[in-house]
Design brief:
mainly alpha; 150 residues; 83% helix
Length: 150
């Protein structure tokens, strides 16, 4: 289904959102690595009681948070927007296929089709699959970014 989505009439918007999502994943991972360095140095300055380094790193710490918050929010918005676009396209695609050549008559008479109560809820499935793929891709990028640092 995802391949059909990326070659459909909405492919340009989907590709733009997917590229933005990839760039945001990499950006958020980079900011998290930067935050870990700044946090390490900040705590070192506190433990050494170095006032000059403390104040300098405090501003770095605040600056990284100011950068991280909108990046994370925009990442989440882009992810949700891509999910909504995909769900909307999938619903229209399946409805077109259902009504194409009166397929609903063949489906209604088929014994292999179960009742609606026993079917999985598509929104739950779409949300769970998207969430699982997001978590795995984010974890992979994060693992690589934290393991590749010097």
């Amino acid at each position: 289904m995802s391949k059909a989505f990326f070659v459909s009439e909405r492919r340009l918007q989907a590709i733009k959102l997917a590229c933005a999502l990839l760039a945001l994943v990499l950006s958020v991972a980079g900011v998290q690595v930067l935050l870990s360095y700044v946090s390490r140095d900040f705590m070192t300055a506190i433990s050494k009681k170095d006032a000059a380094a403390y104040w300098q790193l405090l501003w770095w710490y605040i600056g990284v948070f100011v950068l991280a918050i909108p990046l994370s929010a925009y990442y989440r918005w882009t992810e949700e927007r891509l999910g909504l676009l995909w769900r909307e396209w999938m619903a229209q695609h399946l409805i077109k296929r259902y009504f194409n050549n009166r397929a609903y008559y063949r489906l209604r008479g088929s014994a292999s089709i179960d009742s609606g109560e026993r079917r999985a809820r598509p929104r739950t499935w779409a949300t769970n699959s998207r969430s699982a793929s997001r978590r795995s891709s984010t974890a992979s990028v994060r693992r690589c970014s934290f393991s590749c640092r010097p």
